Protein 1
Amino acid sequence: MNALDNIFNDRGYMFIVDDILENCYFNEIKMCKHHGMNRLDHSIRVSYYSYLVAKKLHLNAVEVARGGLLHDFFVAEDLSSKKQKFSLFFHPYASLKNASEYFDLTEREKDIIITHMFPSLPHKVPRYMESWIVSLVDKIVATYEFYCSYGKNYVYKLSNMYIILLILFKW
Ligand SMILES: [Fe+2]
Ligand SMILES: [Fe+2]
């Protein structure tokens, strides 16, 4: 069973992001290594868990799901070799450019994408609660993935954090 199957079985969520997941260029991020895993799976996790949080808080879960899915929409070719070294700082710009090219974005979705690295990009402060949620969930998911890939001893503790997030927001 695929680790993301529970997400793919959520019809409400899939209805919101279907067109993005079917986009050929977007699917190229599956080839990109990200926190020891692949960028597509990372983006889906961030999108889905942010979506659950937003739903629980009665925020705009649709924009959170879509903005969250597009937050790391870039491949190596989208960054110059110099920028690749500093992709931590430049990739939100590349992601926003790509996302704007392939999809109609709302102001909130644009904000979610460009501010998700806050505070690494201190001048890009989230303007909406939805952006704060994606930024926070991105960091939690990234930590989980990082330790799953590189620090097996820490998986247990981090899994607990992940499970707490699920328990709090999925009912
Ligand atoms: Fe990112
Ligand atoms: Fe991310």
Protein 2
Amino acid sequence: MSEYRWNLSEYAVGYDTAADVIHPHYLEIQDAILAGLPFPADAEILLVDLGGGSGRLAARFLDRWPRAQAIVVDQSDPFLALAERRLAAFDGRGTCVLARLQDDWRSKLPQPAGAIVSMSAIHHLEPAEKRAVYQEAFEALAPGGIFLNGDEVRPERDYRREVEAWAEHMRRHMASGSIGEAFHPALDKWIERNVTHFGGPRKSGEDCHETAAAQLAYLQSAGFAVVDCPWHRHLWGILRGTKQ
Ligand SMILES: C[S@@+](CC[C@H](N)C(=O)[O-])C[C@H]1O[C@@H](n2cnc3c(N)ncnc32)[C@H](O)[C@@H]1O
């Protein structure tokens, strides 16, 4: 079986270096997630980032909340190696857990989480796996905790136009040299899966885009009392749930 693309070291480095060019709303979604965390500056909470990759969002969180802890959960050794290096600056407040989101990451947390966040990761799970991860996230949160997933979300209309627009954005930035060549095969394959084979069958690990409405229903059945989508643009949205 071929290696899952996110486990290739050159892809981890390539994504870490160019994420805010590859993803047209990368920093905007990070900003919105951080702005959506309702905690005072001296909060001693635990934040968990599911599929947190190289720790870019966790590092920004730890910068802003100097008494908090963050755990990056990810299935990729190369991504977590980058995260460990980045989080070393925070004197033990940032740590990593190597786990698939489909497996038991929850028992590896030292305490209930005040916040569980995720970015550009959960859409790799097929529908039943998404439902299960939302359930686990609900169980892992402390009462009053918040869940925020800033992810690729299938728009209700113009899905094909949106994936084509992102493919065009990727092509333009590959041609301009602002995305390193080692990451080009990853983007070419994204275009092949999502544009060339638009509408084809999807399996776990591919881009299993689902609408905000479908995913808010999963959050509701997981037990989240208040669910909404406070930000939605093109192919991206933030899905929010609060545990009462
Ligand atoms: C596009 S990267 C995003 C990384 C990070 N969240 C960010 O926004 O910079 C996708 C990440 O999701 C992780 N991932 C994908 N499927 C996963 C799974 N089933 N379990 C855990 N992590 C997964 C990959 O290893 C990779 O680190």
